[in-house]
Design a protein that fits this description.
It is built from twelve helices and 15 strands. The protein is α+β, with helices and mostly antiparallel strands. An eight-stranded mixed sheet has the order 1-8-9-10-13-7-6-2. Helix 3 runs antiparallel to helix 4, helix 5 packs across helix 12 and helix 7 crosses helix 12. The two termini are 53 Å apart. It binds one RNA strand of 92 nucleotides through helix 3 and helix 4.
RNA sequence: GGAGAGGUGGCCGAGCGGUCGAAGGCAGCUGCCUGCUAAGCAGUUGUAGGGGUAACACUCUACCGGGGGUUCGAAUCCCCCCCUCUCCGCCA
């Protein structure tokens, strides 16, 4: 959510910045609602002040046991105050309505992009930031992970469909082990080398948490709601982990707070029919190790660079070629002020595919979720929140299969993972 | 699922219709004092939203788990809900 005071004073600028995301947003309604609310507030507060002072008088008069004069006077005041109270009550209702209207409006307004974000319409306008690694040369047309995984007997798409339908997967044997190895490896790397604290959050959350991070109210159709229960399955660990500090005031010295969390993620993928229908790329359920940070506003962009490089380190250690893209204004997510995507090279598809998305949300989520910190000796301020995949586990598994495939259909296990695979060096058929 | 207890400021803990944003203690901050990390004395210390200011100051309103109600007036009375704790039962 955007800062109301910022909007009051910079409405035109805010509109311009939001327009760069594509699709102009008319903020004139904000002005209307905000002014209406403040007018009602003024009237109600003036009446409350009166009620408070007169009530005090009445109390005093009643106590001063003296004559009936006071008693009479008090009686008149009483009658007047009944009217005042009734008016306050109806004003309070109007105010609550106005506040809800204003809030509902603001909850649908996306974040304003940071000045360093390239302007553009869609993914084609994203800007390459750096490239790492050299795609391997193959003496034959490299296979896609679906073929490799099927032939090796480690990915069973048919039975996954039998169990759960399209966009689910069933891993077996070395495939299942590899997925588990990747989760452990990533968590170990981020906790031991990058200083994150491991957390294992609930996989179901209340609706308010999703409002906090920005998935609700606008993107309800992407989420799995649990029928007969007031919770949703999490679409990413970002939701429970960011909300860990909801309605808290953190000490400045404690920042940045850095968490790494493994969770499954559940997404309806509404509107992606026909995209990536084969294989593990786009699933209703997938595993991810997520990195989440809480930072001071001053340091949040440095923290974004660090977080991104922490995620890149996973690919480096696995020796998987990748590139980093700065998302343009038109391609960024709703809550983000700036996002880098990390894209891993997939030889089977012959292209780079997103494997991580690292964002700084500035105070957008913090304001929604009430996450603040106390600057030394000052008033509480909203923190900046950041997060990024470190990494999407299923897609990493895909990248390993495709990049390290051999002509005989086997797959070499990256060195760093072998301890997690019971020493296995190569995934072979059978 | 059954039986009890309780939710008050950073923490502990009083208050049980008006003078309560809320005693007291702890912690924190600021002075003073004492030559030595301690103790003592005095003062101070919540959050949000209006108004106001160049910015302070100042001022008003709200907040005692959440939501309703009674009342001129509620932390205090009534109703509903949520949460926590203890005991019993059941269970991964």
């Amino acid at each position: 959510m955007l800062d109301i005071k910022y909007l009051r004073e910079n409405l035109a600028e805010a509109e311009k910045r939001l327009a760069s995301r594509g699709g102009a947003i008319d903020l004139s309604r904000f002005k209307l609602l905000d002014e209406k609310r403040r007018e009602l507030l003024k009237e109600a507060e003036a009446l409350k002040e009166k009620r408070n002072s007169v009530s005090l008088e009445i109390g005093k008069l009643k106590k001063s046991v003296s004559g009936s004069m006071e008693g009479k006077e008090a009686g008149e005041m009483l009658a007047e105050m009944q009217g005042v109270s009734a008016r306050i009550k109806s004003l309070d209702e109007l105010i609550a309505g106005a506040e809800k209207e204003l809030n509902d409006f603001l909850l649908f307004i996306p974040n304003t992009p940071h000045a360093s974000v390239p302007t553009g319409n869609d993914a084609n306008d994203n800007v390459p930031v750096r490239l790492w690694g050299e795609p391997a040369k193959f003496s034959y047309p490299p296979l896609e992970h679906t073929e490799l995984g099927g032939a090796l007997g480690i990915i069973d798409t048919e039975r996954a469909g039998k169990l759960s339908g399209a966009r689910f997967s069933l891993l077996k044997g070395a495939g299942a082990r590899l997925e588990r190895a990747l989760i452990s490896f990533m968590l170990d790397l981020h906790t031991a080398k990058h200083g994150y604290t491991e957390v294992l959050p609930p996989f179901m959350v209340k609706a308010e948490m999703l409002v906090g991070t920005g998935q609700l109210p606008k993107f309800e159709e992407d989420l799995f709601k649990i029928e007969g229960w007031p919770s949703y399955l999490i679409p990413t660990a970002e939701v429970p982990v960011t909300n860990i500090h909801r309605d808290e005031i953190l000490e400045e010295d404690a920042l940045p707070v850095c968490y790494a969390a493994y969770t499954p993620c559940f997404r309806k993928e509404a509107g992606s029919y026909g995209k990536d229908v084969k294989g593990l790329i786009r699933q209703h359920q997938f595993n991810k190790v997520e990195l989440v940070k809480f930072s001071t506003p001053e340091k949040s962009y440095d923290e974004l660079e660090k977080l991104t490089s922490d995620a890149e380190e996973v690919l480096k250690q696995l020796n998987l070629p990748y590139r980093v893209m700065a998302l343009c204004t038109g391609d960024m997510g709703f809550s983000s002020a700036k996002t880098y995507d990390i894209e891993v090279w997939l030889p089977g598809q012959g292209k780079y595919r997103e494997i991580s998305s690292c964002s700084n949300f500035e105070d957008f989520q913090a304001r929604r979720a009430g996450i603040r910190y106390r600057p030394k000796g000052g008033k509480p301020k909203f923190v900046h929140t950041l997060n990024g995949s470190g990494l999407a586990v299923g897609r990493t598994l895909v990248a390993i299969l495709e990049n390290f495939q051999q002509e005989d259909g086997s797959v070499i296990v990256p060195d760093i993972l072998r301890p997690y695979m019971g020493g296995m060096e190569r995934i072979k058929r059978g």
